[in-house]
């Protein structure tokens, strides 16, 4: 056991060392720069602040010798609790627009993250500035805050004063104000304070407000405060009859407060505006207003003014220098995007006279390759190979010059185009007329499952379309997948084959569908012979009758439409070997409210002329029969059916379900059609339908019960045809026993359970003995 544990420990140790070696370079690659001397200086624009006042902080940084910056390096500046940062993002760009990284301003810190651009240039340096707000100072006190922002520089001090409020009553009727909150630096809050002295008015108050450039009105931001204690929405304000606020343009609105509601009541209307991209460049954000009102017993007053809110100040930038003197640096990138670099591109370097210098030069993972120690003169490079997802010209010469008086090397930005492709297709119409077609359709182009372009297609261009200059691969060389999809066209079904689209006209034909439905029903109702039907209860004298033809059933629609569903005309002429022309299975789910009576007339079976089609014509809408003879699976009959077999009158009588209900013989001995009674077993279960259309699988709630000894009037006929009925016999006692075995045993313990328990006990005992013997 100890040897096993030692092996496990060794494996775990090796695995830990292996993982550490893999991730150590990654962890060591990125570093925090705040205490490495990377920050050169920081300063506060103002050293004395009032509570809630804004202040700007400026930061300068630069790369130090021997401390080369890497992609993923961060600079984190910590803010003290009394200086809350205004949220925002600052891109660090050079004059050409190249991004070195970004600085994210948060409430309690600033985090700058640098990208791989810092690895491609030397002597990286830059600066940025952001805005903070003085806060967390008690009212009536002044607090001196010292901080170095978490760097290794000396601390600087800022003084924040929070004046104590006087609590005096307002001395003006109206004033307007605005501010920007640190957590939403792209939004301005505006406040309209009306009737602060709670005076009585002679007329309605009318205020018109207009936002100036750099802002967009947030129309759903209105909230009204009444008497400085109750807050209501714009809808509530209008529903309660205080007045209304009507938008007059995208950036202006009008407020009307009714005189009788404004008496001795103050109102503060609050709303917000979003600062646009152009507005972020403005120093101040302005809002104009015009107010008209009249105090009771005083002259009307009209005033206009503007309110400005100081914008949040963000900014920053970075730069780097070119390689050292005499060095050629080639940067390979995707055309149109200098930040998408291409690794694995090979070049050859030549002098102006065509003499090759060195071997080939191949760009690294950052798309950069350098050729150092070049003497002053004229040179050119030729691209000899590139990844298969870009296009290049191996004959093109890219010239450059190393100057004698140059202090830096040469940097060549060499772009490559991505390979392109095109998608073209044709629209085809089928099964329609020209006048049915729309004038235009729209075809979407999907790149890797996403729609990237849409084109309108018309008949003027023969319904043809094309998408050109599509990138064949992405920047990593993975091929794009393109497909086309048509925007739905009403009345047509669209099919796409490659880049071609076919529209098939959808035709709605209701009559054809109905005829087809009738034909399908006739096919379903076509006579099919059951295989050896078995009757659960019938006289023992009748056994296994051989039926060659299905019996035909005459159904009178007048009686079948009633829920009691009676089948009155069942004329059956039975010869010595009765042929049944119709299976009882065709009648499904008959509901019989009274006991069915069946008259069997074996002498009339051969004379039946009624067909299934006649029955279909006479049948009403598929009434459900709750009770029927035992031709159905488990039919539900309220009373036991009686069977009258009259061989003398077979030709003149009709079998009806009603007569079966009236007479209940016990142990009926049927001369010729016992199969119609009691659970016949067929490959396709016989079903009786009283409707004009005879569906299959009738559902019946209860089986008709037949007494064991029914009175039968035609015993002589039955005795003469016993050999015919040998295939339709009542299940014997053996068959009954088989059915009983299918029922659950509820009396005592099952033999199977005892055997299983004994087997389990023997298995356990054997296992114990085997283990003891092994020990």
UniProtKB/TrEMBL annotation:
Q: Where in the cell is it found?
A: Secreted, Cell wall
- What's the source species for this entry? Bacillus paranthracis
Q: Which UniProt keywords apply?
A: Cell wall, Membrane, Peptidoglycan-anchor, Secreted, Signal, Transmembrane, Transmembrane helix
- Mind telling me which CDD domains this protein's record contains? CollagenBindB (cd00222)
Q: Which intervals hold domain Collagen binding?
A: 173-292
Sorted alphabetically, which InterPro entries does this protein's record hold? Adhesion_dom_sf (IPR008966), Collagen-bd_Cna-like_B-typ_dom (IPR008454), Collagen-bd_dom (IPR008456), Fibrogen-bd_dom1 (IPR011252), Ig-like_fold (IPR013783), QPE_rpt (IPR043631), SDR_Ig (IPR041171), SpaA_PFL_dom_1 (IPR041033)
Q: Which Pfam families match?
A: Big_8, Cna_B, Collagen_bind, QPE, SpaA
Primary localization class, coarse: secreted
Transmembrane ranges, per UniProt, are 749-770
Q: Any idea what this protein is called?
A: Cna B-type domain-containing protein
Q: A biological process (GO) annotation for this entry?
A: cell adhesion
Membrane topology category:
Peptidoglycan-anchor
Biased composition, class Basic and acidic residues, residue ranges = 534-559, 568-604, 613-649, 658-704, 712-726
NCBIfam families membership = LPXTG_anchor
Show where the CNA-B domain sits. 423-503
Report residue spans for region: Disordered.
Answer: 512-745
Any one GO MF annotation of this record: collagen binding
Domain SDR-like Ig: where? 50-133
Q: Which domain of life is it from?
A: Bacteria
């Amino acid at each position: 056991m100890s040897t096993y544990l030692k092996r496990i420990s060794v494996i775990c140790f090796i695995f830990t060392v292996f993982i550490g070696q893999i991730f150590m370079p990654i962890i060591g690659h990125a570093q925090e720069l705040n205490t490495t001397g990377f920050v050169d200086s920081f300063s506060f624009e103002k050293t004395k602040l009032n509570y809630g006042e804004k202040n700007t902080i400026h930061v300068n940084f630069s790369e130090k010798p021997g401390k080369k910056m890497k992609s993923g390096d961060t600079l984190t500046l910590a803010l003290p609790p009394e200086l809350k940062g205004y949220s925002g993002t600052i891109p660090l760009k050079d004059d050409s627009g190249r991004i070195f990284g970004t600085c994210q301003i948060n409430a309690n810190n600033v985090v700058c993250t640098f990208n791989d651009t810092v690895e491609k240039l030397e002597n990286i340096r830059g600066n940025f500035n952001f805005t903070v707000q003085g806060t967390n100072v008690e009212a009536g006190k002044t607090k001196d805050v010292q901080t170095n922002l978490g760097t290794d520089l000396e601390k600087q001090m800022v003084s924040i004063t929070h004046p104590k409020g006087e609590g005096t009553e307002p001395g003006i009727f109206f004033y307007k104000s605005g501010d920007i909150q640190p957590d939403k630096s792209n939004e301005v809050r505006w406040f309209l304070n009306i009737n602060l002295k709670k005076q009585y008015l002679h007329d309605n108050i009318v205020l018109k407000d207009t936002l100036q450039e750099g802002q967009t009105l947030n129309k759903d931001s209105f909230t009204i405060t009444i008497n400085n204690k109750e807050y209501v929405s714009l809808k509530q304000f209008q529903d309660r009859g205080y007045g209304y606020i009507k938008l007059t343009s995208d950036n202006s609105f009008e407020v009307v407060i009714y005189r009788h509601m404004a008496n001795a009541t103050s109102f503060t209307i609050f709303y917000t505006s979003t600062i646009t991209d152009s507005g972020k460049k403005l120093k101040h954000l302005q809002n104009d207003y015009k107010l008209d009102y009249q105090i009771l017993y005083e002259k009307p007053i009209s005033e206009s003014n503007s309110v400005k809110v100081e914008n949040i100040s963000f900014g920053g930038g970075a730069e780097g220098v070119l390689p050292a003197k005499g060095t050629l640096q080639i940067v390979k990138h995707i055309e149109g995007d200098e930040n998408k670099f291409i690794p694995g591109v090979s070049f050859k370097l030549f002098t102006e006279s065509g003499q090759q210098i060195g071997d080939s030069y191949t760009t690294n993972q950052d798309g950069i390759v350098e050729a150092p120690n070049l003497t002053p003169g004229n040179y050119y490079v030729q691209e000899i190979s590139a990844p298969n997802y870009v296009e290049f010209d191996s004959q093109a010469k890219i010239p450059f010059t190393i100057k004698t008086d140059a202090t830096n090397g040469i940097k060549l930005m060499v772009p490559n185009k991505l390979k392109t492709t095109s998608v073209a297709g044709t629209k085809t119409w089928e099964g329609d007329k020209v006048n049915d077609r729309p004038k235009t359709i729209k075809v979407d182009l999907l790149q890797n499952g996403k729609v990237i372009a849409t084109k309108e297609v018309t008949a003027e261009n023969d319904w043809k379309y094309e998408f050109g200059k599509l990138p064949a691969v992405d920047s990593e060389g993975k091929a794009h997948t393109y497909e086309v999809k048509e925007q739905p066209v009403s009345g047509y079904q669209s099919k796409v084959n490659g880049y071609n689209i076919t529209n098939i006209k959808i035709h709605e034909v209701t009559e054809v569908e109905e005829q087809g439905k009738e034909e399908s029903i006739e096919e379903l109702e076509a006579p099919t012979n059951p295989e050896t039907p078995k009757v659960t209860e019938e006289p023992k004298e009748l056994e296994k009758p051989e039926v060659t033809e299905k019996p035909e059933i005459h159904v009178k629609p007048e009686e079948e439409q009633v829920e009691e569903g009676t089948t009155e005309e069942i004329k059956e002429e039975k010869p010595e070997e009765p042929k049944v022309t119709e299976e009882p299975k065709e009648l499904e789910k008959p509901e019989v409210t009274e006991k069915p009576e069946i008259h069997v007339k074996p002498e009339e079976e051969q004379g039946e002329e009624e067909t299934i089609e006649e029955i279909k014509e006479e049948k009403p809408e598929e009434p459900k029969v709750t009770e029927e003879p035992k031709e159905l699976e488990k039919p539900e009959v309220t009373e036991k059916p009686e069977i009258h077999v009259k061989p003398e009158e077979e030709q003149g009588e009709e079998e009806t379900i009603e007569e079966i209900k009236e007479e209940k013989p016990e142990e009926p001995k049927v001369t010729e059609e016992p199969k119609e009674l009691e659970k016949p077993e067929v490959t396709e279960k016989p079903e009786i339908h009283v409707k004009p259309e005879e569906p299959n699988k009738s559902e019946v709630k209860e089986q008709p019960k037949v007494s064991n000894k029914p009175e039968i009037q035609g015993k002589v006929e039955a005795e003469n045809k016993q050999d015919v009925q040998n295939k339709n016999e009542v299940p014997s006692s053996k068959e009954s026993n088989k059915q009983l075995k299918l029922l659950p045993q509820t009396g005592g313990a099952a033999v199977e359970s005892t055997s299983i328990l004994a087997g389990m006990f023997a298995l356990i005992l054997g296992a114990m003995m085997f283990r003891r013997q092994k020990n």
